[in-house]
Every structure is written in structure tokens, then in C-alpha cells.
Design brief:
Pfam families: TetR_C_15, TetR_N. GO terms for molecular function: DNA-binding transcription factor activity; transcription cis-regulatory region binding. Keywords: DNA-binding. This is TetR family transcriptional regulator. With 190 residues, the chain is an all-alpha fold. The chain folds into two domains: 52 residues, Homeodomain-like (Arc Repressor Mutant, subunit A); 124 residues, Tetracycline Repressor, domain 2 (Orthogonal Bundle), CATH 1.10.357.10. It is built from nine helices and no strands. α1 packs across α4, α5 crosses α8 and α5 crosses α9.
Length: 190
């Protein structure tokens, strides 16, 4: 029984991996369940044993990606010492796991959609907490505004970073870090 459950979990992961790749390559609307099954190396009938339709696959995939994105955010803000890092190190600590996640999952933003809003709000709150810890003199409105803009800078540039080939991607990541470091540097920021 345990082996069967492990095989089932493995098969679900293979289906979701295949769907993610196809959604990124051809888009959600142009991807069929038959194409997902073929990419996963199974028959369409086998796919339907796990998922009733493409929407169910997309829902399961968005939940998986949301969990992975939560882990990336946790890695970025994983201890209280992060607030004491030099600003460039702090920016790298926050940006690198997010870039890694989005590069590894280029279709994640579309699949997660509105489900990611609480997570996005949480990141803004965490950036605000870092601002507060590093610059306790900042008025609350400045903390809120600065953290919102910092998160929006990352969001605005992430699509271009994901789409860029190496070595341009690495250069764009450095530009993002430079922009954030400049924006967050005192007097108004971190």
C-alpha cells in the first residue's frame, strides 16, 4: 500500500511538472490534457485517474507553486539576524531566492494569480518589518510606502529577469539589487 501511494504521489508530480513545462512553453489555453499526458509519459486515461480536467491540474499546480513560493520567501526572511546585515547583503538575501524560484518556474505568476495576493502582502509586511527594525525613526506611512515600492520594483523587473538569457539575466539581477540598495539606502530607507 505504501509503495502504491508513493507511486501515486510520484505520478502526480510528473503530471504537474509536465503541465508546468507546457503551460510555460505554449500557454495554458493552448495546452491540452493529451499533451500533458504525453509529456508525462502516460496515457490520457491514466491522467484522468488523477485529475478530472485541465483546470484541476492547474489548481493543483498553483497550490504546489504557492507552497514553493512560501518556502522561497521563508528562505529570504528566515532569521532575525537578517535585519542586521549590511544593506547590499540584505538585498541579496531577499532577492536571490525569489529570482531562483521565478526562473525555475516561469509560468508561476500566471498560475498563482490572485491566490498569491496574501503572500505578496506578507512580503510587503516583512519588508516593512525590516525597515522598522533598521530605521525605527521612520514614520509608519513612510515604512508602508517604502516597503510597497520596494516590492513593486522587484515585481516589475522579475518578468524581464526570467525572460532574459544568461549572462544578461545575471546582469539584470545585479541591476535590480543596485536599484533596491539605492532606493532603500538612508536617509529614507534601510
Amino acid at each position: 500500500m505504501v509503495k502504491r501511494q508513493a507511486r501515486g504521489r510520484q505520478r502526480i508530480a510528473e503530471i504537474l511538472d509536465a503541465a508546468l513545462a507546457l503551460f510555460a512553453e505554449t500557454g495554458y489555453d493552448r495546452t491540452s490534457t493529451n499533451a500533458i499526458a504525453a509529456r508525462a509519459g502516460i496515457s490520457p486515461g491514466s491522467l484522468y485517474q488523477y485529475f478530472p480536467n485541465k483546470e484541476a491540474i492547474a489548481d493543483a499546480l498553483s497550490e504546489r507553486l504557492l507552497g514553493e513560493l512560501r518556502e522561497a520567501h521563508a528562505a529570504a526572511f528566515d532569521d532575525s539576524a537578517v535585519a542586521g546585515l549590511p544593506l547590499p547583503d540584505l538585498v541579496s538575501r531577499v532577492v536571490d531566492p525569489l529570482v531562483f524560484f521565478h526562473v525555475a518556474n516561469p509560468g508561476a505568476k500566471v498560475l498563482i494569480g490572485e491566490k498569491g495576493q496574501p503572500l505578496h502582502t506578507g512580503v510587503t509586511d516583512r519588508v516593512g518589518a525590516l525597515l522598522r527594525a533598521r530605521s525605527p525613526h521612520l514614520p509608519d506611512d513612510d515604512v508602508r510606502r517604502t516597503s510597497t515600492v520596494a516590492v513593486q520594483i522587484v515585481a516589475a523587473l522579475m518578468g524581464g529577469i526570467v525572460a532574459a538569457p544568461e549572462p544578461e539575466r545575471a546582469a539584470l539581477v545585479q541591476e535590480l539589487k543596485r536599484a533596491l540598495t539605492g532606493y532603500l539606502a538612508p536617509p529614507g530607507g534601510l
